[in-house]
Design goal:
The complex is a heterodimer of chains A (446) and B (461). Chain A is mainly alpha-helical and 446 residues long. Chain A is built from 17 helices and two strands. In chain A, 70% of the residues lie in helices and 4% in strands. The termini of chain A are far apart. Chain B has 461 residues and is mainly α. The longest helix of chain B is centred in the middle third of the chain and has 32 residues. The C terminus of chain B is likely disordered. Classes of the chains: A mainly alpha (446), B mainly alpha (461). At the A-B interface, helix 1, strand 1, helix 5, helix 6 and helix 17 of A face helix 12, helix 14, helix 15, helix 16 and helix 18 of B.
Chain lengths: 446, 461
């Protein structure tokens, strides 16, 4: 293993090791002080940034296109193997850089923002776990490993949405997000299986699978399901406002920067396969366009800052999907980097937005006058009203999901409960009427 | 001359039984007696595993695993439950299960099968207001007894080794064995007893009984090696039933509010995947099933153990219908619960991620359409486990609860050991997967082996 490879391994493993050690010590009874946690976080992510800089410098000086580390197989059974490959190439490096820089910044911001919060150690542990999961997903040289990182990001995201655990609303919204993630991840699991089945491996360190037309379409559509779920694209956008229940720093890094773009990363990774499949490409563009329109309309009717920002984020990710569908890969990467940085800043400033406005008004000597005409003025009055109601219910997406997926499933479950209760003397337990998590969200962020 | 393996097997089985008698007579130091007896079983089983040849160590590994579970159970069991019935029952079930794992004789297997159910036929033990657990266990025992009777009536020996590949007793014996598996394993439509037993019985010993996985044992030990030809043609039926069970109980768990029943449904759904994997006839699927056997066992024991600890602290009327906010009292138990729960449903970084990966690949390869149901069932199980976690541990603290201790050091160390097993197993899966892979090849070869000639098979008898 040469120096660059060692640095790559360090970058990926460092947050994971910190998480593992701190979590184990906590389980055995140790409660770390805030100052200790902040110092460890600062030093970990600073070291990761330095290590990534070294990798970049090495790549630039040697002219290599990628650093690849092959650990062999994580496990193997017969012809089936799970390759453990890390790769830092032109696509993964920007995402890895974004992850470590923003994780470090968010950690630094949270040291003050969450000071004396009851879940302070929990937040920092989850931040390290999130960074570890993201780095695995972005540095993975095989889709198998990408799945591992992908799932870890999902779990961390849900646990942070439920961070304010004393209130039922964040907890139930976390459960709802978890359900959507798990449902969409089926696409990724089956897609990876299809690659193994048709190509023999899911490693892309030496190139993407060579599949026939139909196989290519099937794999791309399965991966698109996973990407759309993770990126909150239509029809899965309903979970995004619910996710705003988490603390602002986690909203910033998850839904302003890293997690929301993970779906786009997956599509960028398989872009050559997408380019071969016209159907999948068109579907990516259509989903992106619909999401962008949905995001911009619903965002305008959102009553709180974080939800407005979340929908603004959604709009941009929709545009990124369109760019990927068209094949403008590097424009999409640049768009993601710029958008993630700006949106993180906006999220982190959101709690003090009123203060900022007051300062601005003081400096201006009065309130700012509204400027220009608004887009919705182009529509007739009746259409405006209809659009407003449509936006208030967030495009009815949750309602549709409830009516056509969740409620039938719950009814089926209740039917099974009645069948199971037949023949018993005792009172049959009443199944849950309607899970709180399944009710559509009316209020967004906190 | 008596072999050392036989001595070790006798020690591993008889010491828990003797200790169970001792506990019944002497009501003092029960936890210590249980701990020592289980430790002896662990040690003897470990020595047996060490001496077992590669590819034939499944039952020795299961003996080690089950002894470790019993050891953990004797330590974790709350003081309120630490009575002669519970400790004696745990030791009795331990001895019976190890006997079933180790035997190569049909009659001994039947005896072990029946012995392991005896504590659950006692009204004092199983307080379920349902006739289903006893009936299911009784029917499974009758079916197994009849199958063995049919085999013996056809003039066959009762040594499993001498019956391999000979389809003794023909379709009648095969059918009866499948019926025994269905009732013991809780395969649809005989699934409801598992939840009834989990709700009515003592939590930790019942979890031990369910985690013996006698149904899967019967498949791996008798059905596949003895009936390879019949299994090749009719096994998919059992597989479809197992997949249907996995999906059915996963849907059923979505609206269940009793924590014990919910956990039982999720555990049943996940353990049904073991049968589906065993039947997949691919080395990935079979290996995944064997590894999953280990994961489901440890995770389920951990979850039921934590649930019981919560019950003795906060009362037995815990429910998933509202938020109880117990994490405020017991943050470490909350973390243990979420790790075990997510480890049961394929959390990355745990052993179940590998086993699920292999299982899904194996079942999808052999049954592309029905295999698709497994990831769907797992996703629903994940939602159910997470729902239970959020309802029990998150939300506003109920004012009715007095301040209670989090995990005690004794509980903490045992639960940490369980977490380390699933996590380290997930980080370094090859240690376990390679062993199970060798055994899976043996199972796969048994299924794929050409049918024996007409004269020796006895299929048409």
């Amino acid at each position: 293993m040469n120096f660059s490879q060692a640095m790559l391994v360090f970058v990926v493993l460092a947050p994971g090791m910190v998480f593992a050690v701190l979590a184990l010590l906590w389980l055995l009874g140790w409660v770390p002080a805030e100052r200790v946690l902040c110092r460890i976080t600062r030093q970990t992510f600073s070291a990761c940034v330095l290590a990534l800089a070294v990798i970049l410098w090495k790549l630039a000086s040697t002219g290599d296109r990628a650093v690849v580390v092959m650990f062999g197989n994580w496990f193997a059974v017969g012809d089936y193997h799970f390759p453990l490959v890390l790769i830092a190439d032109q696509l993964s490096l920007p995402f890895m850089g974004l992850t470590v820089v923003l994780s470090g910044l968010v950690g630094q911001f949270s040291a003050t923002y969450l000071h004396r919060e009851r879940g302070f150690p929990r937040f920092f542990l989850l931040l390290h776990l999130f960074a570890f999961g993201s780095l695995i997903a972005f540095a993975a040289g095989s889709f198998d490993l990408l799945v591992a990182g992908w799932e870890m990001v999902g779990i961390t995201s849900v646990l942070l949405i439920a961070f304010f655990q004393q209130r039922p609303s964040p907890v139930e919204n976390g459960l709802r997000v978890f359900a959507v993630y798990r449902a969409c991840d089926i696409g990724l699991l089956v897609g990876v299986f299809a690659m193994h089945h048709w190509w023999g491996t899911a490693s892309f360190a030496t190139g993407l699978p060579q599949l026939t037309g139909t196989q290519d379409v099937i794999v791309c559509l399965l991966l698109l399901l996973a990407a759309a779920g993770k990126a909150a694209q239509v029809p899965f956008s309903g979970w995004l406002p619910r996710a705003m229940e988490g603390p602002t720093p986690s909203s910033a890094i998850f839904y302003g920067a890293i997690s929301i773009h993970a779906g786009a990363y997956l599509l960028l990774r398989v872009q050559p396969m997408l380019a071969e499949s016209r159907l999948a490409s068109i579907l990516v563009i259509v989903i992106g366009v619909i999401t962008a329109i949905h995001g911009t309309i619903v965002g305008r009717a959102s009553a709180d800052a974080k939800t407005s920002l979340a929908y603004a984020s959604l709009t941009q990710v929709g545009v990124v999907f369109v760019e990927i569908g068209i094949g403008w890969t590097w424009i999409a990467v640049a768009h993601i980097l710029g958008h993630a940085t700006v949106r993180t800043l906006q999220f982190l400033r959101a709690p003090s937005m009123l203060h900022d406005y007051h300062q601005m008004h003081s400096a201006m000597g009065g309130e700012l006058s509204p400027t220009g005409s608004r887009l919705e003025d182009l529509f007739p009055k009746r259409a405006q009203l209809w659009l407003y109601r449509w936006a208030l219910d967030r495009g009815h997406l949750d309602t549709i999901l409830d009516r056509w997926v969740i409620n039938p499933l719950m009814q089926l479950s209740k039917l099974f409960a009645r069948l199971d209760g037949m023949g018993l003397d005792g009172p049959v337990r009443r199944p849950e009427e309607v899970a709180i998590s399944m009710r559509p969200a009316r209020q967004g962020g906190s | 001359m008596v072999s050392s393996a036989l001595i070790l097997t006798v020690v591993a089985i008889s010491v828990p039984w003797l200790a169970a008698i001792l506990v019944a007579v002497n009501h003092r130091q029960m936890r210590v007696i249980g701990f020592v007896a289980s430790s002896v079983s662990v040690l003897a089983s470990a020595l047996l595993l060490r001496g077992a040849p590669v590819g034939e160590s499944l039952y020795q590994a299961l003996m080690v695993l089950f002894s470790c579970l019993a050891l953990g159970a004797t330590l974790v069991i709350p003081r309120r439950d630490c009575n002669p019935g519970a400790i004696g029952g745990i030791l009795f079930v331990l001895g019976s299960t190890l006997l079933a794992y180790s035997t190569q004789n049909l009659l001994v297997l039947l005896v072990a099968w029946i012995l392991s159910t005896i504590p659950f036929c006692s009204v004092h033990w199983l307080r379920a207001q349902s006739w289903r657990p006893q009936t299911a266990l009784l029917l499974s025992s009758i079916a197994l007894a009849l199958a063995i009777a049919v085999i013996a009536a056809n003039g066959h020996a009762i040594s499993i080794g001498s019956l391999k590949g000979r389809s003794p007793g023909g379709m009648a014996a095969f059918g009866l064995l499948v019926v025994a598996v269905i009732f013991r394993k809780g395969i649809c439509p005989a699934h409801a007893w598992v939840a009834d037993a989990a709700e009515g019985g003592p939590a930790i010993p019942t979890a031990l009984l369910l985690n013996g996985h006698f149904g899967a044992l019967l498949v791996a030990k008798l059905i596949v090696p003895l009936f390879p030809n019949t299994a090749r043609n009719l096994f998919p039926v059992l597989s479809y039933l197992a997949i249907a069970t996995a999906v059915y109980v996963a849907i059923r768990a979505l609206t269940e509010n009793s924590p014990r029943r919910l956990l039982a449904f999720v555990a049943l759904s996940q353990s049904a995947c073991i049968l589906a994997g065993l039947e997949s006839r691919t080395s990935e699927g079979i290996t995944g099933a064997l590894v999953h056997w280990f994961v489901v066992t440890v995770s389920t024991m951990g979850l039921f153990g934590i649930l019981r600890l919560l019950e003795v602290r906060f009362g037995e009327n815990l429910t998933a219908s509202r938020h109880l906010g117990l994490a405020e009292h017991a943050p470490r138990l909350a973390v243990f619960f979420v790790v075990f729960g997510l480890a049961l449903v394929g959390l990355p970084g745990t052993l179940s991620f590998c086993s699920q990966d292999l299982l899904i690949h194996g079942t999808l390869a052999s049954h592309p359409l029905t295999g698709l149901l497994l990831p769907i069932a797992t996703a629903m199980n994940a939602v159910s486990v997470f729902r239970l976690f959020t309802r029990l541990f998150l939300g506003k603290r109920r004012t009715g609860f007095t301040l209670m201790a989090d995990a005690l050091p004794r509980e903490r160390w045992i639960l940490t050991a369980g977490v380390l097993f699933v996590v380290l197993g997930g980080l370094f899966p090859n240690v376990i997967v390679a062993q199970r892979s060798a055994e899976a090849e043996t199972v796969e070869q048994a299924i794929r082996a050409p049918a024996p000639s007409h004269s020796e098979s006895g299929v048409d008898q």
